Amino acid sequence: MANSAPPQKYVMLEQQPKLQPPPYHRRNVPRYHKSGGGSGGCLKCICCCYCTLIILIFIVAGITFYFYTVFQPQVPTYKVDKIDVKAFDVAPLELTLETELVLTVKADNPNKRIGFIYGKDSSVVVTFSDHQLCSGQLPAFYQGHKNITMMKVVMKGKTKVDPEIQKKLMKYKESGKVPLLIRVVAPVRVVVGNVQTRQIKVLVDCTLVTSNVAPKSKAKILSAKYDVNVQF
To answer: Rounded to an integer, what distance in angstroms lies between the CA atom of residue 98 and that of residue 14?
Structure first.
């Protein structure tokens, strides 16, 4: 009898490796906790800033009050005292005007405890009907307390003038009232005790009317208006 094949072994289900279900992934949702400390910190910071600002305002106000009470600062005054005409020659053919003036300028410092240092890079310009006639410079000097300084400023210029300006100038000369504009720009330092401030610019516009611009004459100042500004 032929050998029959050995009976096939059957594997029971429980002998197979158990199939594990896929792991359950849990999402960790972040939880936010209310905290009252943040808003309180912001309020404290704002309060500190306001307190610091108020203290600074009081300090500045106190220093300003002390300065004005003790030093009593006053603005210096400037005046063109006289004008000497050395040359005022019109060349009709060349359409040129050659001018030489000597201005005597009076600077009055009324302050008891404040001085002024006038720098080198100043400029003085004389114009007629928006046309520059001549220019010069103020001397550099220190002006002490309660001081009046008289300065002589030599001004020269040669400029081209059109026939209309010549006619207008001759008309004013014949009337004996010549309007001129004198513009001064001066670098100045304020001196309080041993302390000097940084340099500022003093701007002076003097609109005046003179009686005469004939050469080698002393012109009489009929009227003058001054406008003083400070540029920081």
So the answer is: 127
Q: How far apart are CA 125 and CA 122, in angstroms?
A: 10
Contact 153, 134 (CB under 8 A): no
The average confidence (pLDDT) of the chain is: 84
Return the residue matching tokens 């309007």.
179
pLDDT the model gives residue 127: 96
Residues paired with 220 in a beta bridge: none
| Residue range 80-95, pLDDT digits in tens | 999 999 999 888 778 8
88/82 Cα distance (integer angstroms): 16
Most distant CA pair in the chain, distance: 165
